[in-house]
Design goal:
mainly alpha
């Protein structure tokens, strides 16, 4: 997901004839490290707060070394802090090229990352996880990457980021719909707990449909090229997901949504690259 956000920004930079491969690769590395650190800190606090237990779906479909005790809590936290340190190091290098604004953008990402699950804010446990994820993987990551690569801010990358931001939001919403019954046991507030799973499924379907509508609007606004209509090839997968979830949210609801997000993002990027090669 971080690859898609950063690479979409890079492709938009190529269209502006302001692409710098070294800045793109360094930005991509920093974002992937930040994503990894966020996931690890999320696991740390989920285990600490008993969000993650042996009976929850998360422990059944993916490895969870902290939960199983393969890695100790202190060692796990040390690795997480090390990843954050590498992110800050990369941001420092990039700031030498693009100035102190890079540090401000990185600071915003770090705050969202750390306080996604860390007290006293803990966005995830206050039904604010989805909006934060949208802002980070959408406007902040795409817009910030675009600035890092080009040295300029424009509204186009922010608008182009909206479908990707929504899709990443849906990965979290799918996770929270699946875990709603388990989250209630530890008094966690999420959107599916507030709305109920059925209303959340309606929201999921509506937001998923909106990504295609917004992409078409962005094409009509000439922010994206007509070749970005390639994302419509994923509509059958999206429709199948909604039907599957309506019958019963599966244990792997979030990775299924993440696969759709990746495919949608790759087709969007491919469409924009094709428009560059065809000069359309």
């Amino acid at each position: 997901m971080s690859f898609v956000s950063a690479t979409l920004a890079a492709v938009l930079a190529i269209k502006l004839a302001a692409f710098d491969a070294s800045l793109y690769l360094l930005t991509l590395a920093g974002l992937i490290l930040l994503h990894a650190a966020t996931n690890m800190l999320n696991d740390y606090f989920d285990v600490k707060n008993r969000e993650d237990r042996f009976d929850v779906p998360t422990s059944r479909y993916r490895p969870h070394p902290l939960l199983t005790g393969e890695v100790g809590g202190r060692e796990f936290l040390t690795m997480t802090v090390t990843l954050y340190g590498l992110v800050v190091l990369i941001a420092g290098v990039l700031s030498l090229v693009r100035g102190p604004l890079i540090l401000l953008l990185t600071g915003a990402g770090l705050l969202a990352s750390v306080f996604y699950t860390a007290p006293p804010i803990a966005f995830k446990y206050r039904a604010l996880g989805e909006p934060v994820v949208f802002l980070v993987w959408g406007p902040l990551m795409v817009g910030g990457s675009y600035y890092t690569i080009t040295g300029t801010f424009t509204v186009e990358p922010l608008l182009a980021s909206i479908p990707i931001g929504i899709l990443v939001l849906l990965v979290l919403l799918a996770n929270n719909m699946r875990d709603a019954d388990y989250d209630r046991e530890v008094v966690t507030t999420t959107i599916p707990i507030l709305l109920g799973v059925r209303r959340s499924l309606i929201l999921y379907g509506a937001l998923l449909a909106s990504t295609y509508v917004i992409t078409i609007l962005l094409i009509l606004m000439r922010i994206l090229s007509v070749y970005s209509l390639a994302v419509l090839f994923t509509t059958t997968i999206a429709a199948r997901l909604v039907r599957t979830f309506w019958a019963g949210v599966p244990d792997d609801a979030d990775p299924q949504t993440a696969k759709l997000t990746l495919l949608f993002g790759l087709l969007l990027i491919a469409g924009e690259l094709f428009s560059i090669f065809t000069k359309y």
